[in-house]
Amino acid sequence: MEKQNIILAASAAFVIALVISYLLTPYAKKLAYKIGAIDIPKDNRRVHKKPMPRLGGIAIYSAFVITAIFMAVLNPNIHFNSEFKGILIGVTIIVMIGIVDDVKQISAKYKLAAQIVAALIVVYSGVTIDFINFPLVKSESGYVFLKALKIPMTVFWIVGITNTVNLIDGLDGLAAGVSAIASLSLAAVAYNIGQYNVAILLAILAGASSGFLPYNFNPAQIFMGDTGSLAIGFLLATISVEGVIKKAATIAVAIPVLALGVPIFDTTFAIIRRLLNGRPIMEADKGHLHHRLLDHGFSQKQTVVTLYAISMVLGGSAVVVSNATTRIAAYLVIASISLLVLFGALRMGLMKKVEERKAKV
């Protein structure tokens, strides 16, 4: 396909997914009330104060699947291979467990088990991280091939990214907007390196997330719930492996890390914060970046828009790194962004102990 046609196809896919998601969200809201998928605030970590339906992820998932199939049928030049089929099966498992959790609040260990099963299905379909690039390790090819470690490394990546998106879903419109920005950033990278089908898939995910936003932006009418945040995280993780980490020529793993910088860095600092303060890693607290911004006097909307802006900067950095003509240039961009992130984290106190850390569930 010509590049101009790819841009048109991706743009059409984005709009179609956006419209479908927008149209389906009110029905997801009705279904949430019908089956009891309601978020009732029980502790002081929750920003919202009234019960909210939390099944919006069904609309996002449905929009993604319907649009992807429609694009494949409509345009014979778009081929979604066995890897995509594995991703589709995996995300369906994630959505099913998410629906159950949004209704009944199941144990974290069962959710983790389902995520591992879904990740293994994707790995079996051929989606694996085969190599990584270390600046200080020399090899003839420039890469360190994982060999036997590629399966556990891929599963770790998929499960980790799946949960980082879930962890930032703490304010109206935050997870959906950040995910849409990350999807568009990765779509630009995929387009630049010739992964056109992947670029279209990411445009679809961005559209599905964006179509949900009018109902989810402050003041929200519905939450995406675990159904949505886990599904979006899973799709971002798996599609980034298939289309970016496998194919990018320079610092492959760093590209999706930058594009998904807000959830990844926020989760990383949360883990460091809890370890430094002798708290369990999985214990919820009010020390996340969005909590800190609220503590500094930002409103919900100001906080979310600020995090959108940060996501855009990080996403733009991912595109710059993917276009870097030399590794030194890529390293310089990554080092600069890393220093800025560390400085910002220290200024915001992301690694300091916070009051009332435990979630009283």
TrEMBL record:
Coiled-coil blocks: none
Molecular function in Gene Ontology: transferase activity
Stored InterPro entries: Glycosyl_transferase_4, PNAcMuramoyl-5peptid_Trfase_CS
Annotated compartments: Cell membrane
Membrane topology category: Multi-pass membrane protein
Main location: membrane
Tagged with keyword Metal-binding: no
Transmembrane segment boundaries: 6-24, 55-78, 84-100, 112-132, 144-162, 174-193, 199-217, 229-245, 251-272, 304-322, 328-350
Pfam families in the cross-refs: Glycos_transf_4 (PF00953)
Keywords annotated in UniProt: Cell membrane, Membrane, Transferase, Transmembrane, Transmembrane helix
Protein name: Undecaprenyl/decaprenyl-phosphate alpha-N-acetylglucosaminyl 1-phosphate transferase
UniProt source species: Alkaliphilus flagellatus
